[in-house]
Structure formats: structure tokens, C-alpha cells
Design brief:
The protein is mostly helical. The protein is built from 9 helices and no strands.
Length: about 220
């Protein structure tokens, strides 16, 4: 089975197609400038007077880093890809109007975004988290708790994302949370019923759960002898 069906990258295309003509200047082919990096400070805070153009620029820079991460992934340079996806998320930090900034407690206003910018923002966040989970599954050892964390963040934004459901199921299986694994993998199979990877992990999960049930039955028998 094609690995892209359950373990490949998410990519909804460039931001330029989502937020209008402001990205037509060729910025998608350019690397991040020092000015752009300064815009995404380590604190991730956004000034209340962030303009439409500045918001647009931050989204463009995040797209650049995500595209670079995708390229590294395809070249099997997974740690470099992880770094690029984290840098993309840094560009997005503080932009989400649904995520209050600590500065709002001191009177700062939440960033104002257009519906198109907000859609682009959420798509980028979702794809970066999903692709981070994909990269981490190629590391040794695999940090399954983080794979699960990133996959759940994707599912909060898109509950029917089959790749995130599959990765959450795989992570839950290796964390020995077989009930959760069965839930996630069952949902993934409902969406992609022919996916061989999903079927494989469902079979492994059923086997583990069957073993536990047999142990429980034997325990109860021993208790009432």
C-alpha cells in the first residue's frame, strides 16, 4: 500500500491561494529575512497594531518553512524537517485570535485577521503538527507521547483527518493504551477502509486486547476457586 495514504505528509497547497494576491511578489521562493525572523520573537507575542500586510507576511514565512520541511522529509532528513516545522509554527505563534495572548491581561488587543487569513493559519498549524508526527515516527527512539500529542492537536482542528487518526492509533498502541488505539484506528478505518497499515495495527490491537481479556478471565477464575 502507498505509504502516503496513512503516513505521508499533509499539504493543502501554498498560502498564496488562500489569502489573495498579496503573495504574488515571489516571496514563496525566498528565504526568511532577519526582519521576518524578528517579527516572530521567541516570546511569540503579537503587537496590537499588527497590520494586514504584516499578518500576511508572517503566514507567507510560515509557508516557506513548511515547504522546506516537506522537502527535507521527502529527502529523508527527518530531524531537519522537524526543525523547519517548528520554525513555521514559531511564525504562527500569537497570531491565532482564538488563543489569548498573556499581553491581553495588560490591555493588548487580540490580533485581527480576515476569514481567509484565519483559514490559512489553521491549515498551516494543522499540517505542521501532522507532519511533525510523521517525522517523529521515523526517529529512534520514537517519542510516541509527542506523536500522540501532535496528532490530537490535528484532530482538534479536523476530527476526520485519517492520517492523524492513524498516527494517534499507532502512538496509543505503543503507549499500551489499547482502548484508545482501537478508537482511533477504528475511526481511521471507517474513513479509509482499504488502508493496509490501519488494518495491520487494528489486528495488533485486537490481539493485545484479546490477551488482556483472557488474563482477566483467568484472574477472576483464580479468585473464586
Amino acid at each position: 500500500m502507498d505509504v502516503e495514504s496513512s503516513s505521508g505528509l499533509d499539504d493543502v497547497g501554498s498560502v498564496s491561494g488562500q489569502i489573495g494576491a498579496s503573495s504574488s511578489s515571489g516571496i514563496m521562493d525566498a528565504g526568511p529575512s532577519s526582519t521576518h525572523m524578528e517579527a516572530a520573537s521567541s516570546s511569540g507575542q503579537v503587537h496590537a497594531d499588527l497590520s494586514f500586510a504584516q499578518m500576511d507576511d508572517r503566514l507567507q514565512q510560515a509557508q516557506i518553512f513548511k515547504d522546506a520541511g516537506n522537502k527535507s522529509y521527502k529527502e529523508q532528513r527527518y530531524r531537519d524537517a522537524i526543525s523547519k516545522y517548528h520554525r513555521a509554527l514559531l511564525q504562527l505563534k500569537g497570531l491565532d485570535p482564538n488563543m489569548p495572548s498573556p499581553l491581553q491581561a495588560f490591555g493588548a488587543k487580540a490580533p485581527v485577521v480576515t476569514p481567509e487569513q484565519e483559514k490559512a493559519l489553521h491549515n498551516l498549524q494543522r499540517d505542521c503538527y501532522n507532519n511533525l508526527a510523521a517525522c517523529l515516527l521515523h526517529t529512534d527512539p520514537v517519542p510516541y507521547a509527542r506523536v500522540l500529542q501532535y496528532s490530537v492537536l490535528v484532530l482538534e482542528k479536523q476530527p476526520s483527518n485519517a492520517k492523524a487518526l492513524y498516527r494517534a492509533g499507532v502512538a496509543s498502541f505503543h503507549l499500551r493504551d489499547f482502548d484508545s488505539a482501537l478508537h482511533y484506528l477504528g475511526e481511521a478505518q471507517r474513513i479509509q477502509p482499504t488502508d493496509a497499515n490501519v488494518k495491520k495495527y487494528l489486528k495488533l490491537t485486537d490481539s493485545e486486547l484479546s490477551g488482556y481479556r483472557q488474563q482477566e478471565k483467568q484472574l477472576y477464575r483464580d479468585m473464586f476457586k
